[in-house]
Amino acid sequence: MDLIDRALKFEQRSLRSLSTSDRVKISREAKALILDLNQIYKVKKDEKIMNLMKRLTVIKRKVEKRLKGAPLTT
Predict the structure, then answer these.
(1) How far is CA 45 from CA 21, 36, 49, in A?
(2) What is the pLDDT of residues 13-72, one digit of tens each?
(3) 55 near 11, Cβ under 8 Å?
């Protein structure tokens, strides 16, 4: 369960005052963790893994939203 431990540590990571390159790295790492957890979930069908993937997805979306910036209004 090394992957689940890595995902839990990733979830506890502070996301304050990050540079753009840090945000890109975090987004990519979150995506990789989610995809790897999904492979485990397909086999085990454990609800805890699904909840962990959902929480990581929320973090990933927040980081990507910040990367893309605010939408321009016309």
Answers:
(1) 34, 14, 8
(2) 888 888 989 999 999 999 999 999 999 999 999 999 999 999 999 999 999 988 887 776
(3) yes
- Residue 63, amino acid: V
pTM, whole model, 2 decimals? 0.83
Q: Distances from the Cα of 71 to the Cαs of 9, 54, 60, 74, in angstroms?
A: 32, 25, 18, 10
Contacts of 6 (CB under 8 A, 6+ apart): 33
73 SS3 class: coil
